[in-house]
Structure formats: C-alpha cells, structure tokens
Fold:
Amino acid sequence: MNLAVIGSGGREHAICYKLKQSPKIKKLICIPGNAGTQKLAENIKEDISNFEALYQIIKKQKIDIVFIGPEQPLVDGLVDYLNKKKVRVFGPDKFASQLEGSKAFMKNLCKVHEIPTADFGVFNNIDEATNFIKQAEVPIVVKADGLAAGKGVSICQSKEEALKNTKEILKGKFKSSNKVVLEEFLNGEELSFFTIVDKNSYLFFGSAQDHKRVGEGDNGPNTGGMGAYSPAPLLTHELKEKIKKKIIEPTLKIMKDLGHPYTGFLYAGLMISKGEPYLIEYNIRMGDPECQVLMMRLETDLLEIIDFATRNKIKDLKIKWTKKSSITIVLCANGYPYNYIKNSEIKNLSSILADKNNQVFHAGTYEKNNKIYSNGGRVLNITSLSESLTEARNKSLSNLNKINWTDGFFRKDIGWKVINNK
Structure:
C-alpha cells in the first residue's frame, strides 16, 4: 500500500517509523516532513494548508491512504476536502474537529450531555468575563477558545493575572480565538487517554502522561509538551472503564447523533480527582510527544490498524502493546516557548545508535549539506523503551548527553512524580 503522512513534527516522524515496519508498505511519503522523516519516507515540500496542491500530490503518487498528523488541517476541513475527491483518509471531519478546534463547543457539549468536566463560562465580552473572574476562586484557568499550539492555557494564581490573560485573548493574541473559556481549577493527576475510532466502534489505544510546563518540577509557562511516558501507572482497569462509560462513549454517541460520526484518533486529556475522571480537553489527533512513546510500545502493525479503521472494521482487530515502559524527552531551542534560536547546527546525533529500544524522533530540524540544523521550537525527541520507567529515562538522558548542541535545553525530570514516588 502507498501512504502519505501529513505533517512535520516528532509525531509524524514516529508514525513514519512505525509504518515503515509494515510488510504491507510499498510507498511512504511525508508532506512536508523533516530531517528525520526523509530517512524513512520521501519528503515532499508543500504548504499543508493548500488542499488542492496536497490532492494533486496524492493523486500523482497513487496514494491509498492519507494520515493527517496535526490538528490545523483537520480543523480546516482537509478530511472533508479529500473525501469529496474519493480519497481514503484517516481523521475526523471539520464538524467533529470542533472537539479540539473550539473549547467552547467541547465544554457546551459536556454541559448539555452531562459529561464530567470543570465548571466554566464562555465569553467574548470583557465586562462579562470580568464579572465571572470577580466571583471565581483562584486559581482560575484561562483558555483561548481556538487552536493555540498548546500555548493557549494559563493557570492563573490571582484574579489580576486571569484578567490580564483574558484581555490578551479577547484582543486577538491567538488569531483563531475571539472567545475565552474560564474554568475552575481541578486538583488531581493528569492523564492522556487514547482511542482509535471508526464509524461503527472504537478501541482503546494506550495511555500516557505528558509534561506541559517548560520548567522542571512542572513550573513555568505551558508548552506543546516537554516529554511524556507510557503506560500511565495511574490508569487501573476500573478507571479505564469509568472513562469509557462516562466520557468516550457519550461523546461518540453525540457526534453520531449530530450526523458527524467521529473517525480517527481521539485523545482525551483528563484530570483524575479522587478516583473520578474529568474531561479537561479533547485532541482530535495523536498527542505530540505522547505519540512517540506509544509508537515505541505498539506491537501491532500500524498500517493494518489504519487500513481497518478507514474501512470501518476496527472491531475486528486486537491491538497489542509491550508491557515495557517508554519515555521521550524533548530537546528544545533556547528561548522556547517564546522567541527561540533557529538555524544552529546540531552535532554528534549519529553517536546515538537507533534500534527498537532507542530512537531520536525529529521535529524542528532540517538537513543542509549532510548536516542537521535546528528550525527552532521543539527540535528533537529522545525516546527510549525499557523494563522500567527509571531505566528508560536513564537511557534517554544518556543519549541526550551525547548530542553536541549548545543552543538547546531539556527537562531532566520527565516522569518525576512516578519515579520519585517509587
């Protein structure tokens, strides 16, 4: 089979890594890809917001299935566009993509259908938002309604800070947002819960725990993700069943009832408080960097999974995972998540021996004259698989120390709550 992967991050590199292992893969292309994907697939440079140009590439390359990695083209309706062209595509349509594309849509859906979530208000007027903030208890969670590359959420420790962040969002700090969601703060443990969905059924697709804050000890501003580990020890069988019955299944029923059955990966960002799950957010795609750790643990052929899902036969599959633990540590450009350094050479990457237990997934990289350069932001994902989380982290840290790049930084404490509590 011929597959196209849309995207250029660490998530897409991990997807290509797993797809390439399938005996059924004939041709693999990545649009636009990065310095890592080009070792596995043919990179084709194209603006992924240009749907017609993407379609022409897909047609010319005789692609059987398109896998869309990032959220923006999903929210913009790439699935709908390709469906009209009779292209098999993995991912939700534009309407269903509002589950991530609009936090207000998701929160209102929870309210109407009694899906457990934090109390909230949605505002496009600063006066009404101010009144809500005055009456709320701190900390207050302030969220941009639309997509914000993982940086649209602030946990504010004072009402003044909440008001400042609210004003910035309503003044257009994030271009996709003209509304703000204000939420109560929930105490508990975060959990990433993944499912793969077709029009008829769904399957659990693993668990992980992400580290959003830029600083060690989970301090500093939110980012797209500084590291992750899988599986999440927090997820018991009992909790898994609660999440399915109280959150996942009601959501899928609602989308079907609305005439837009959900398809693709559905990732629930949850807060577990006193043993009960609360929906914090939905993501309409694989997490990044959670995808990287899940792909290391996945034992079933990913191409077969996607093939079955796009033919609405997911219920016929049994997905197998190794019991080993995987961890990924994200190497970022200095200055991230704000103004960061670009175009500096990363040396000594070849000293890390890639195998089934150790991988370097590229994100913000490009190759020039056989040298690897940083393109800024989150640059590399140093990922390891081992019998224990502690061993996996030690492997990743050891591999990170082999890299010669003075313009980057990383968190040394990924998995700290679990490892330090053992």
Q: What stands out?
A: The mean pLDDT is 95. The two ends are 45 Å apart (CA to CA). The chain is about 30% helix and 30% strand.
